[in-house]
Every structure is written in C-alpha cells, then in structure tokens.
Amino acid sequence: MKRRKKGGQKPIQLIALGSAVATVAGGVATNRVEGPWWAQALWFAGAAVALGLAGWLARLAAQPSTEESRQEPGMHETPGTPDTNHERLRNLLSIHERNVRILEAQVAKYAGDAPVHLQTQLEDELKRLEAVRERLRSQPQ
Predict the structure, then answer these.
(1) What is the rounded CA–CA span in Å between residue 109 and residue 119?
(2) Which of 41, 42, 49 is nearest to 23 (CA)?
(3) Predicted confidence (pLDDT) at residue 121 exceeds the cutoff of 90
(4) Residue 46 in contact with residue 26, Cβ under 8 Å?
(5) CB count, 10 Å around CB of 5?
(6) Distance of alpha carbon 21 from alpha carbon 7, whole angstroms
(7) Averaged over 30-38, what is the pLDDT?
(8) d(Cα 23, Cα 26) in Å, to the nearest integer?
(9) What is the spatial distance between Cα 104 and Cα 58, in angstroms, rounded to a whole number?
(10) What are the φ/ψ torsions at residue 122 (nearest 5 degrees)?
C-alpha cells in the first residue's frame, strides 16, 4: 500500500470531520424521522456508514507519512559497511547487558520467589545477549 505524503493529511482530516458531523446529524435525524420503519432504518444505516468512514479516515490521517516511517536498519538488516554493523552490534550488546542487569536486580528483590514473567524475561534477554555475542564473535574485525 502506498502511503501519501504529509501535505495530503489536511483534506483527509476535513473529510473525517465531515463524516463525523454527518454521523451525529444522521443519529439525530433517525430520532426525528416519521413514517415507515424502513425510512428510520435508512437514516440509521446512513449514520453508521458515515461513522465507519470517519473512523477509517481518521486512522488514515494518523498514519505516518513515508518519510516519517523510515527507521534505522533492524537486527536482521545489514547496513553498508562492516564497521557500522560492528558498531551496531556493540550497541545492541550494551543494551542487552543493561537489560540483564536490571532484570537480575528485579529477580533478586524476590529472594528466590520471583514471578514467572520476570524469570522468563531474564531468560529471553540472556538468549538475546548470547545471540549478539555470537554474531560479534563470528564477524571479522
């Protein structure tokens, strides 16, 4: 799906606002429509469609543009030079080491009776730490 640029958000927001107003007007009109049941049902259906359109357009307007959604390369992507990849792995290593220290301190507060979720987080973080260490060892320096 192609995302629109930032300049296209204003019309989308205005259409979403108009749809929300139409929803309110449709809801009020449903209570005031006199006549057969199907006329009231038609007003209600129109209000429901306008509400759905307003919600969809509001979500669309809230999405970041293509430029905003660009991120740094993740762990599974390899940047251009080995030096930057090594630096990135060293940075990941320090982050995971810090996370392990924090989790170990939290587990220690429970004196051997730590909740399962803390124990699991610590185990997962230790696995991630070891994976990063292994990637650093296998990488030429």
Answers:
(1) 12
(2) 49
(3) yes
(4) yes
(5) 9
(6) 23
(7) 70
(8) 5
(9) 43
(10) -65, -45
How far is it, in rounded angstroms, from Cα 82 to Cα 89?
10
91 is written with which tokens? Answer: 């940075």
**Cα(123)–Cα(116) distance, rounded to whole angstroms?**
11
Report the amino acid identity of residue 32.
R
Supply 110's token pair: 């429970």
Task: Provide the angle, in degrees to the nearest 10, between the axes of the packed helices 116-138 and 82-108.
Answer: 160
Q: In the numeric block, which tokens belong to residue 64?
A: 């970041």
Q: Is 111 left (phi over 0), alpha (psi -120 to 50) or beta?
A: left
For 134: left if phi > 0, alpha if psi spans -120 to 50, otherwise beta; the answer is: alpha
| Ranges of H-type helices in the chain | 9-32, 37-62, 82-108, 116-138
Q: Read off the pTM.
A: 0.42
Sequence-distant (≥ 6) Cβ neighbours of residue 40 within 8 angstroms: 30, 33
Please tell me the predicted confidence (pLDDT) of residue 69: 46
Angstrom distance (rounded) from CA 141 to CA 136: 9
Looking at this protein, which amino acid is placed at residue 132? V
* 40/49 Cα distance (integer angstroms): 14
